[in-house]
Write a structure and sequence with these properties.
By secondary structure, this protein is an alpha+beta fold. The protein is built from 15 helices and 38 strands. A 7-stranded mixed beta sheet has the order 2-3-1-4-5-11-6, with helices on both faces. The longest helix has 18 residues, at 577-594. Bound molecules: guanosine-5'-diphosphate and magnesium ion (MG).
């Protein structure tokens, strides 16, 4: 059995890309050349190694972040496959959280597309160093320098071009390596496994020299040694150059740019070299900060095996009926058979097995140490976003941010047998996916699923059927609303009841007032302890929060209000917490009704790509759906419309857009905020 590699030889990386840029194809090649899979699976054959869920194969997209370990030049690389579809940004977000470096894969034809821009910005937020791989250089319309420009302009990054493509479109057959000043040519007969370094052909020598000079010039801005050498015009050795690139990449100053055509088996080995050479190991990044669960004291978790354990569960999935937790270990070690402590639940858990995950097989390990990402079997209660630590050294790592579910559907089991299975299947899905919310509608007795988008829920329904043979009838998708009020409203409730032989008395007055959009809710008490003892004020507060969970209009959560306790009377012998909680809750409902309640709906930001010829129709259609156009940008024969639009108006939009643009328009959409339509 195995333990993890030396920490400095670990790379935890993710591949971020717009859908169809070639992320899966690149990953497949990486697995092939690192010797882990023995056959290159093609995406269009539906047999790629990473895309192993039936749903993914059918849709040709990657949904779950499967973690895959491979080895290159004494380095252990853990690849987390991040999804490209916006409905699953949550998956991207939580994988970015545990990565140390990322590769942005861009299609040389489409350049930097909106979803890769979204994910790139998320990666910026987490300060993840990045490398760019410009793919599909064999395709007609491939534009290497155009894509480099977009990396600079759209992503506000400083690209550092390390390679030049040789030949274009069908004639793309090699790259020039500007560090070694060589040409690299791949052998087609071995699927690119064999490649050769050659002298740069004469007719390309001038271009190569020019771009080598640009490379040095750009790097000199970020590195004093290179600056000195550059000014003195002395030769810079490859080693020194690589060290400077590594430093500037890790410090987020530059993004090294490489290129190739994954499908044609070109460019992958230098990309692997770049991962090991330029992206950080867990010891090259700042220690992660955690918090003592009781004292709140900040604890720095260093990437050392000998330090107390600090690990984050970033994903939970069900594997052959068992719960598999994906864990990033920041400090310390875990052992199979060992115990860990979950401070959020104040519970001990047992690690039954540690698994090193490959896309299609798993390897058991005895110990996993700091810096690694492994699968763990045996955790019963712990879930996504929670910390595992040592009970004697408790620490809480920062939670992963989740997005709001904005779409819901009602589901009903088809048969009695389905009824029995449905609840347990849904409970499993909820354990895996914190953005899926399941509740029972008390009026209709239906089960309501809420999620991040139509596709998210469609995939859940289809997995219920395929993986668990559970058949359900599905209602129409509905938008998930919020409720709030227009003006302040007040109410007084006197509660005086005998329940099970005891009198319960309370009197409270509350005022509910609107707050600006996005403020959240606030509770304020104007009553001092000598008028109403703190114990009962706390009971009032409890009632207020409970009441805000479902509004008076349609039972959606209430947002952006301040509730003030303005008056309370107190009778020592008759006061009970129950009475104050109930009366506060009732007073809230009445105050809300007095404040002109209304619904807030999810507003989305949409980016729509439209060929020039159809722009008028598409804008007209958007306006009729209540969309607000924020900007229109021109891009390579197409227009990109940025708009905000109420989600409720966007059902069926993709079909509509396709038919209005002869199938050429595309769009992506993301939740922005709740607002009045
Ligand atoms: P993903 O959605 O980012 O995972 O992209 P895929 O890897 O699924 O690739 C999308 C499509 O582009 C597939 O049909 C691939 O075969 C194709 N593709 C990927 N890389 C290349 C390339 O280098 N050249 C060409 N011509 N096609 C490619
Ligand atoms: Mg894919």
């Amino acid at each position: 059995m195995k333990t993890t590699a030396k920490i400095a030889n670990i790379r935890n990386i993710g591949i971020i890309a717009h859908i169809d840029a070639g992320k899966t194809t690149v990953t497949e090649r990486i697995l092939y050349y690192t010797g882990r899979s023995h056959k290159i699976g093609e995406v269009h054959d539906g047999e790629a190694v990473m895309d192993w869920m039936p749903d993914e194969q059918e849709r040709g997209i990657t949904i779950t972040s499967a973690v895959t370990t491979c080895h290159w030049q004494h380095t252990e690389i853990h690849i987390i496959d991040t999804p490209g579809h916006v409905d699953f940004t949550i998956e991207v977000e939580r994988s970015l959280r545990v990565l140390d470096g990322a590769i942005g894969v861009f299609s040389a034809v489409e350049g930097v597309e909106p979803q890769s821009e979204t994910v790139w910005r998320q990666a910026d937020k987490y300060k993840v160093p990045k490398i760019a791989f410009i793919n599909k250089l064999d395709r007609i319309g491939a534009d290497f320098f155009g894509t480099v420009r977009m990396i600079r302009e759209r992503l506000k990054a400083q690209p550092l071009v390390l390679q030049l493509p040789v030949g274009s479109e069908d004639n793309f057959n090699a790259v020039i390596d500007l560090i070694h000043m060589k040409q690299i040519v791949w052998d087609d007969d071995t699927l690119g496994a064999i490649f050769e370094e050659q002298e740069i052909p004469g007719h390309l020598a001038a271009d190569a020299a020019e771009y080598r000079d640009k490379l040095l010039e750009t790097l000199a801005e970020h590195d004093d040694d290179i600056m000195e050498a550059y000014l003195a015009e002395t030769t810079v050795e490859s080693d020194a150059l690589r060290a400077a690139i590594r430093k500037a990449t890790i410090n987020l100053k530059i993004v090294p740019v490489l290129c190739g055509a994954a499908l044609k088996n070109k460019g992958i080995q230098p990309l692997l070299d770049a991962i090991t050479r330029f992206l950080p190991s867990p010891v090259d990044i700042p220690p992660i900060a955690g918090m003592h669960p009781e004292t709140g004291e900040v604890i720095q978790c260093h990437p050392k095996d000998s330090d107390p354990l600090a690990a984050l569960i970033f994903k939970v999935s069900m594997m052959e009926g068992r719960k598999l937790s994906y864990v990033r270990i920041y400090s310390g070690q875990i052992r199979s058979g060992g115990e860990v402590f979950n401070p959020a639940r104040n519970e001990k858990e047992k690690i039954a097995r540690i698994l090193n995950m490959h896309a299609n097989r798993r390897e058991r390990m005895n110990i996993a140490g700091a810096g690694s990402i492994v699968g763990v079997v045996g955790l019963k209660r712990s879930s996504t976003g929670e910390t595992l630590c040592n009970q004697n050294h408790p620490v809480l790592l920062e939670k992963i941010e989740f997005y709001e579910p904005v779409i819901s559907i009602a589901v009903e089991p088809k048969t009695h047998a389905d009824q029995e299975k449905m609840d347990s299947v849904l409970a499993k899905f909820m354990a895996e996916d914190p953005t899926l919310i399941v509740r029972k509608d008390e009026d209709t007795a239906q089960t309501i699923l809420s999620g991040m988008g139509e596709l998210h829920l469609e995939i859940i329904i289809s997995r219920m059927l395929r993986e668990f043979n559970t058949n359900v009838n599905v209602g129409k998708p509905q938008v998930v609303y919020r409720e709030t009020i227009e003006k302040p409203g007040s109410a007084t409730i006197i509660f005086d009841k005998e329940i099970a032989g005891q009198r319960h008395f309370a009197e409270v007055s509350v005022t509910m007032a609107p707050l600006p959009r996005g403020s959240g809710n606030k509770f304020v008490s104007e009553i001092s302890n000598d008028i109403l003892p703190d114990l009962y004020t706390a009971a009032v507060e409890k009632g207020v929060w409970e009441s805000l969970e479902s509004g008076s209009q349609m039972g959606y959560p209430v947002v952006d209000v301040e509730v003030r306790l303005t008056h309370a009377s107190y009778k020592e012998s008759l006061a009970t917490e129950l009475a104050y909680t109930v009366s506060a809750s009732m007073a809230c409902k009445d105050a809300m009704n007095a404040g002109n309640p209304f619904l807030l709906e999810p507003i989305m930001t949409a980016e729509i790509f439209v060929p020039e010829a159809f722009i008028g129709d598409v804008i007209g259609e958007l306006n009729s759906r209540g969309g607000k156009i924020e900007s229109i940008e021109h891009k390579a024969g197409a227009q990109v419309i940025n708009a905000t639009v109420p989600l409720s108006q966007m059902f069926g939009y993709s079909t509509n857009l396709r038919s209005a643009t002869q199938g050429r328009g595309t769009f992506s959409m993301q939740f922005s905020h709740f607002d009045r339509n």
